[in-house]
Amino acid sequence: MKLKLFRLALLPILLLSSQCVLATDPVPEFDIGPSCRAAGVAAIITPRNTAACEREENNARAALEKEWSQFAPSDQVRCVRLVTLGGSPSYVELLTCLEMAKQVKELPKTDQLGNGQPIEKSRHAK
Questions:
Q1: What is the largest CA-CA distance in the chain?
Q2: What angle is formed at CA 61 by the lines to CA 29 and CA 26, rounded to 5 degrees?
Q3: What is the pLDDT at residue 35?
Q4: How far is it, in rounded angstroms, from Cα 44 to Cα 69?
Q5: Which residues lie closer than 8 Å to 46 by C-beta, 6 or more apart?
Q6: What CA–CA distance (Å, rounded) separates 82 from 94?
Q7: Beta-carbon count within 10 A of 44 CB
Q8: Is 36 exposed, middle or buried (0-12, 13-18, 19+ CB in 10 A)?
């Protein structure tokens, strides 16, 4: 009887823990072909050709695979939406967006200069 009660008590824990794993979305799949082909066409002006673009995108994808869980889910959603709006999505842009969002959260919370003096907020004319 005790074993049966123990199993019943563990059931919610097991169910909730599986939900936590399922809630983590993987790195999205992007088709980098169109943007890298466009980079190849523009290679006349810039040194970034199709092969260089694909290398950069694949390196950014690999970095995202390693670091994905370190980024806040809300930032993941926001950055994915941002880089998929219009045009071809880019892993380089997604990684940049996520890194910037993470760095913003690490900024000091005070409105002070390095010398400890408060920053005067600008006043807008009404």
A1: 77
A2: 50
A3: 84
A4: 38
A5: 39
A6: 8
A7: 7
A8: buried
- Please indicate, yes or no, whether the overall pTM of this predicted structure exceeds 0.70: no
Q: Tell me how far apart the terminal alpha carbons of the chain are, to the nearest angstrom.
A: 74
Work out the mean pLDDT of the chain and round it to a whole number. 77
For residue 10, give the amino acid letter: L
Q: What is the mean pLDDT of residues 13-38?
A: 68
For 59-95, give the secondary structure using H, E and C.
HHHHHHHHHHHHCCHHHHHHHHHHHHCCCCCCHHHHH
Q: What are the boundaries of each domain within the chain? A: 30-106
Residue 91 near residue 30 (C-beta atoms within 8 A): yes
pLDDT of residue 58: 97
Helix (H) or strand (E) holding 5: helix 2-23
Contact between residue 71 and residue 102 where contact means Cβ atoms under 8 Å apart: yes
